DNA sequence: GTCTATACGCCGATAGAC
DNA sequence: GTCTATCGGCGTATAGAC
């Protein structure tokens, strides 16, 4: 039986609540209550200087997790045909976006410009996703121009991102299952890459 | 010289501020100041019962605009080849999402579950976009199974949505121009639809 | 319809006992 | 480290003069 430190519990519950209700809408008392402390007591301030410092700590923890996921992903690169590679990468990218969903929700309308840390972290996230898909596209379509590779990867990443966002906004009805979505995503991209490799037959 | 009624100015400025800073972060005083009234005075409450009633009024106005755009779009259906139709629809869908961007930002982390009106309006928006693309896909690929048509349209819509969202979140760097994006989006979808029409040659 | 003034509540943060 | 108690500030909403 391991005791989770209060500081960690505060970060976990805070990020969950920020994600659900937004940064401003979540009060310090609520976070304390969720972490098992007396709501309204300033107990939180013995671990963090301010509410925003707590958010920064949450961002840093998320950044570490992302790096871990990226390390693991390197083990599964380039083993198989185009569709298999695309499917594996698609699963990885979806998992990353899911893991960072808290980010996205908070960044969408959190402190916004008040917290440059958020926009920086988000830009780095998108850049990484984009680079991964662009690398795969370039490997399987060696004679595709660089700017076309870029366009393909942007559309591909944004499709995944949009799918997650639409779910996030409560569009459960018209969305399809993850498996079907990823299957179609793979089909569409492989179709495009294959056709670009053989321009006219 | 037409005098814009105070009520309309209040709605316009409120939606703009909600979009920039979020619903909760925007104070009534700020809205009053933006509309040319004395900040802090309750002048706003002579036009709206509460701050949330103001948001509802903004939502209703947006719904009317959407209906207008939809009426216009009906004039441009099904004239040309697959790519032309896709490009026209893509421009229309992008325009709709842009017009509703205020929605998206507010819905992403506004009152959330507090305001069922927002989620309803957003679900209706996505449903309309999805139906448009599904209809086009079905028309140009008559022998594609219905569930495949659905998957294609979901991926297509989410790509557009994700593109707008990523811009919205401040990812100006890795994003490409609208023209290049729409061009690639058209290529990818037409490629997919054409291939599905002729399964194996 | 718009103003000044104000009531009331909630939240972030601090002080000090234990 | 956690508690009780509290200060100061901001935000919504109202009352009443003009």
How many domains would you count in the coordinates of chain A?
2
Oligomer: homodimer
Return the CATH architecture of the largest domain in chain A: Orthogonal Bundle
Shape category of chain A: elongated
Care to count the β-strands of chain A?
Answer: 0
CATH topology label of the largest domain in chain A: Tetracycline Repressor, domain 2
Average pLDDT, all residues of chain A: 90
Q: How far is the N terminus from the C terminus of chain A?
A: 65 Å
The total count of helices of chain A amounts to: 8
Class derived from helix and strand content of chain A = mainly alpha
Largest sheet of chain A: none
Q: State the largest interface.
A: A-B, 55 and 54 residues
Q: For this structure, what is the CATH class of the largest domain in chain A?
A: Mainly Alpha
Order of helices and strands of chain A: HHHHHHHH
Beta-strand percent range of chain A: under 5%
Backbone CA Rg of chain A: 20 Å
Please tell me about this protein's structure.
Two copies of one chain form a homodimer. The first copy, chain A, is an all-alpha fold and 201 residues long. The first copy, chain A, has two domains: 1-48, Homeodomain-like (Arc Repressor Mutant, subunit A, Orthogonal Bundle), CATH 1.10.10; 59-197, Tetracycline Repressor, domain 2 (Orthogonal Bundle). In chain A, 70% of the residues lie in helices and 0% in strands. Chain A contains eight helices and no strands. The first copy, chain A, is elongated, with a radius of gyration of 20 Å. The termini of chain A are far apart. The model of chain A has no long low-confidence stretch (mean pLDDT 90). The interface between A and B is large, with 55 and 54 residues. The first copy, chain A, binds a DNA duplex (18 and 18 nucleotides) through loops.
């Amino acid at each position: 039986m391991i005791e989770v430190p209060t500081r960690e519990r505060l970060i976990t519950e805070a990020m969950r609540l920020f994600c659900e209700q937004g940064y401003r809408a979540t009060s310090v008392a609520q976070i304390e209550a969720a972490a098992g402390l007396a709501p309204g007591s300033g107990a939180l301030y013995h671990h963090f200087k301010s509410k925003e410092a707590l958010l920064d700590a949450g961002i840093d923890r998320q950044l570490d997790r992302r790096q871990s996921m990226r390390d693991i992903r390197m083990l599964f690169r380039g083993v198989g045909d185009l569709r298999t590679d695309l499917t594996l990468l698609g699963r990885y990218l979806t998992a990353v976006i899911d893991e960072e969903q808290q980010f996205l929700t908070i960044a969408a309308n959190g402190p916004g410009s008040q917290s440059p840390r958020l926009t920086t972290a988000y830009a780095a996230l998108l850049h990484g996703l984009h680079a991964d898909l662009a690398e795969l596209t370039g490997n399987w379509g060696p004679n595709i121009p660089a700017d076309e590779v870029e366009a393909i990867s942007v559309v591909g990443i944004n499709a995944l991102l949009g799918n997650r966002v639409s779910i996030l906004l409560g569009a459960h009805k018209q969305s399809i299952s993850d498996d079907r979505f990823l299957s179609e995503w793979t089909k569409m991209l492989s179709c495009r890459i294959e056709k670009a490799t053989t321009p006219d037959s």
